[in-house]
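Q: How do we represent a protein-ligand complex in a form that can be generated token by token?
A: Start from the inputs.
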Amino acid sequence: MRLVILGPQGAGKGTQAEYLADKYGIPHIATGDMFRWAIRQGDELGRAVKDYVEAGRLVPDELTIRVVSERLDADDAASGWILDGFPRNLAQAEGLERLMRSKGRELDRALVIDVPEDVSLRRTLGRRVCENCGATYHEDRPPRNDWVCDRCGGRVVARSDDSEATVRERLRTYHEQTEPLKDYYRERGRLLEVDGTASPEEVFERIVAGL
Ligand code: AMP
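Then emit the structure tokens for the protein with adenosine monophosphate bound:
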């Protein structure tokens, strides 16, 4: 299974991608997690993307496509993957299509999880993430022990780009650049749209039924 997940901030892309990765035994590849990890490492990629990520602006396409291409070549991605947060615009969608063609593969589905703006803001502003493994929590749904990740024991913190101003900027970018990809994938017969306002378990059931 080769799947991309799109949706506004706080739609639950990361949560659903984790469920799907478990169910199908394929890696969950989140460009945002890869960039945040690189920034924490302070490596070359991290230095190149830091200013964009912190301002809530898109990292340049060429660099993003290169990072994704290298990740998709890893052994664990040979039999499928779930891309979360990529593509974010038409150039990236076309880049992915070229990449797939060059590897003789096809994308199975583009899953869009939709939530209205107020839900998006509420979920994102209360979001907490494990800085080690990227697992997500919410201030109303914390880990069992005092902001220590249930899964890996890492520190659970607010993302520095989850401030209200930055989230609004990211939502604007989503509507302008990412949402038009619905038409792109609809025309290719790949689109699966799911309402993301229900509980994570219910949303997951709808996705699996749709797939
Ligand atoms: P996310 O975790 O998906 O919300 O991504 C966090 C930040 O990483 C975004 O606000 C962008 O700065 C950057 N980013 C993640 N994915 C992409 C992408 N596909 N293209 C460009 N920038 C991205």
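Residues 9, 31-32, 35, 52-53, 56-59, 64, 85-86, 88, 92, 161, 170 surround adenosine monophosphate (CB under 6 Å). The two ends are 10 Å apart (CA to CA).
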